[in-house]
Amino acid sequence: MLDRINERPKDRILEVMNLFRSDPREHKIDLGVGVYRNAEGVTPVMRAVKTAERKLWERQETKVYTGLAGDPAFAEAMRSLVLGDAVDPLRVAAAATPGGTGAVRQAFELVRVENPGATVWVSNPTWPNHVSILRHLGMKMREYRYFDGDTRSVDFPGMMEDLAALGAGDVVLLHGCCHNPTGADLKPAEWQAVADHIATIGATPMIDIAYQGFGDGVEEDAVGLRTVVRSCSEALVAASCSKNFGIYRERTGLLIGVAPRADRRSGVQAALNHLNRQNFSFPPDHGARIVTEILVDSGLRAEWMSELEEMRLCMLGLRERLASELQRVTGSNRFGFIAEHRGMFSRLGVSPERVERMRERHGVYMIGDSRMNIAGLNDDTLPIVAQAISETCT
Ligand code: LMR
Question: Is 272:93 a contact under the CB 8 Å cutoff?
Fold first, then answer.
């Protein structure tokens, strides 16, 4: 059997990560994979995480199995962070997963098991792994327009036009904030219109939230998601702690199922537990405990919030500086949208050939669809990148 196995299609993001690592040039610049980097180019362990880990190390007496859904305290702390008071907690089922990707995968699988005919609607474009997992699971998928290549903002009329074909029982995948790969987010009134449409059709919203706190703030970034869960009778939410707690390799995520009524919660919880058991049994616990420790301790929480805010403001500053440097070197406001986007990513909207040229000539690495990770810039590299974009893309 093993001698018959062929190569798999390459993951666009991981491919760039590997290309960057194997480039011997000293002055290469990594704007590829979505990890936060500080001004020194380091992805640091957050201070609050260090403290939480130390406390955990001192206090933890056992590493025996948790429950299939992970530690209930983690689910509760995350429920409150993500959903706030948007829905009655008695309607909320949740299970810890290996990272946000684990939550996405479990959510899709839940849909496949419970509603095998459902079509999952994804934004065009979306995080490539959404599409890849749906294909892997053999699920039906359709795209809705999302990004206007001219304005580099959300094509809201196009989105609603496409979602007019939504069917009852279909699933609409939305990015909670900091849309990946475009950086263009829905406005509050647009969230409400999408939510109302999904509710009217009787479809199920699924929200992937991987960057809460990276856009406009922890609470602000959850506004759209909360609008949806308030307006629809049920919802799935895949939440990641990788980025906002900087614990990428700990694989810490949560899948939330908001049941239509409190008396349907236990069925949803049982389904989430069962899925975990089939796929990996017990979810990873270390990262979940760090997050819980931080969220329930007011001092640690305040420290985490201020670090997260530092990161957010740093990315916002980089956006503004890159947009103005590009205005200076190109003499036009063509790249002004970079300052309007939110989160780690902006899609430049240039061809894969130009992206490759930037890599070859200037050692600037971004994803082939021209998504760049703003957090990969710093004061030294920003003018170089602006020059490279100007030379290659104008
Ligand atoms: C990204 O989009 O770069 C991150 O979410 C990392 C990943 O797993 O693709």
Answer: yes
Give me ligand 1 centre to Cα 345, in Å: 11
Distance 30 CA to ligand 1 centre (A): 13
Phi first, then psi: give them for residue 181, nearest 5 degrees.
-105, 5
DSSP letter, residue 258: E
Is the model's pLDDT at 92 over the cut of 90?
Answer: yes
Q: Would residue 210 show up in a list of annotated catalytic residues for this protein?
A: yes
Confirm if 16 and 365 have CB atoms less than 8 A apart.
Answer: yes
CA of 19 to the centre of ligand 1 (A): 15
Residue nearest to atom 1 of ligand 1 (CA): 34
Give dist(CA 179, CA 166) in Å, integer. 21
pTM above 0.85, yes or no: yes
Length of the chain: 394
Cis peptide before 383 (omega within 30 of 0): no
- Which residue's CA is the nearest one to ligand 1's atom 4? 34
Query: Model confidence over 357-374: pLDDT tens digits?
Result: 999 999 999 999 999 999
Q: Which one from 30, 162, 170, 208 is the annotated catalytic residue?
A: 208
At 267-288, the pLDDT tens digits run: 999 999 999 999 999 999 999 9
Phi, psi of 155 (to 5 degrees): -85, 75
Would you call 48 a catalytic residue per the annotation?
no
